[in-house]
Design a protein that fits this description.
Blueprint lengths: L11 H6 L13 H15 L9 H17 L6 H20 L5 E2 L4 E6 L14 E6 L16 H4 L2 E2 L7 H10 L21 H8 L5 E5 L4 E5 L21 E7 L4 E6 L7 E12 L9 E6 L7 E7 L14 E11 L6 E6 L2 E8 L4
Parallel strand pairs: 1-4, 5-8
Antiparallel strand pairs: 2-3, 3-14, 5-6, 7-8, 9-12, 9-14, 10-11, 10-13, 11-12, 13-14
Helix pairs in contact: 3-4
């Protein structure tokens, strides 16, 4: 798939992001190289190779989502949206239209199919039920990025590398002498590569300078534009000397960046959050309250939590907030970031997720 290219750029700066990696341009999506690698693997395995151009759709559904989130002051995760809209959306639909049965991706995750037999499962109308499990390789598990998948999509999915570790996959590639056997791991934003997010955002978002304040209200510096900062950020604040400062909030009305001093400052920690835009792998919301584990960022160890219904707003006491839940953690969590994903687990099984909103 081709999803990001110069054709989708709106200025010369973005064009450079996808001109391919080189010594003078170490960032970039490198889609040409990836396509050629895939073509060579297909040739080696004697299977047909097709290439589809989704640059327009990727721009509209992923890049615009990414930029709109930062304009609103949150920190969106474009990899989640890419999976939702492109890989398991338009790409899967394209494959099915062409007569394919399933798509196989390189995500380190496992799928489990349960036969409901003739029990007449009301939810699935007797069809098989699919669960998502963490990948065997704990260092590479990518279930965090797949919480939006539905039963309809999982029915047509294969995750062949999920039962192996990364070293085992490289051994298999070497055994078959595949051209990508020594290819470095991919990094950065889905289909865009290793991009400097701050530089990228500044190409599209007009920001204005403002004050940097401590939690005590002391002005200690000047920020470059609130949109480019994220909760928990340390680097790029440009406050030198002594104990480092970390971003804990952004006041858009006053155009002020709020920071706290020290990595363990209590202002960086919260035990509760509100999540919305929920998706449950089973297709059905679990019975609440629910005790489970959760991650608020990729590679974070599982955190014990409890999910309850989100209490209605005091101004709307008779209404229930739609598609929202409150998550209460056993231990305080550092730098909970609105716009990022919270993903829920029951042991090895990933049960769903949502988008982090307000913290209380």
């Amino acid at each position: 798939m081709k999803c990001w290219s110069p054709e989708t750029s709106i200025n010369q700066g973005a064009l450079r992001l996808c001109s391919g990696q080189s010594d003078s341009n170490p960032i970039g999506c490198g889609w040409e190289r990836d396509e050629e690698d895939a073509r060579q693997v297909a040739s080696k395995l004697a299977i047909p190779f097709y290439s589809w151009d989704f640059t327009k759709e990727y721009r509209e559904k992923v890049i615009d989502y990414f930029l709109d989130g930062y304009k609103k002051g949150i920190t969106p995760n474009p990899d989640i949206e890419c999976n939702r809209e492109i890989k398991f959306g338009m790409f899967l639909e394209k494959v099915l239209v062409m007569g394919g049965d399933k798509i196989a991706t390189g995500h380190y995750v496992r799928i489990r199919e349960r036969d409901t037999g003739d029990k007449g499962d009301r939810r699935n109308k007797g069809e098989n039920v699919y669960s998502l499990l963490k990948g065997v390789d704990g260092n590479k598990d990518q279930s965090y990025f797949l919480w939006t998948l539905t039963q309809k999509q999982l029915k047509h999915c294969l995750f062949p590398v999920g039962d192996y570790t990364k070293p085992e996959i490289r051994k298999i590639a070497a055994k078959w002498d595949l051209p990508v056997k020594d290819k470095p791991d991919s990094q950065g934003i889905c289909f865009m590569g290793k991009v400097n997010v701050e530089d990228f955002l500044k190409q599209y978002i007009k920001s204005k300078l403002g004050k940097i304040l401590t939690t005590d209200g002391e002005v200690i510096g000047e920020h470059d534009g609130l949109e480019t900062y994220t909760i928990g950020q340390r680097r790029g604040i440009k406050i030198g000397g002594g104990i480092p400062y970390f971003v804990i909030g952004k006041d858009f009305k006053k155009n002020e960046l709020i920071v706290a001093k020290g990595r363990k400052n209590e202002a960086l920690f919260e035990k509760e959050l509100i999540a919305s835009d929920l998706s449950w792998i089973s297709g059905e919301e679990p019975k609440l309250p629910l005790k489970c584990q959760a991650k608020i960022r990729y590679r974070q160890p599982d955190q014990e939590c409890r999910i309850i219904e989100n209490p209605p707003s005091p101004r709307l006491r008779r209404t229930k907030e739609k598609n929202q839940i409150k998550v209460i953690f056993k231990e305080s969590q550092r730098a909970i970031t609105p716009g990022q994903s919270i993903v829920f687990y029951k042991g090895e099984e990933m049960i769903g997720g949502g988008i982090i909103g307000s913290l209380k």
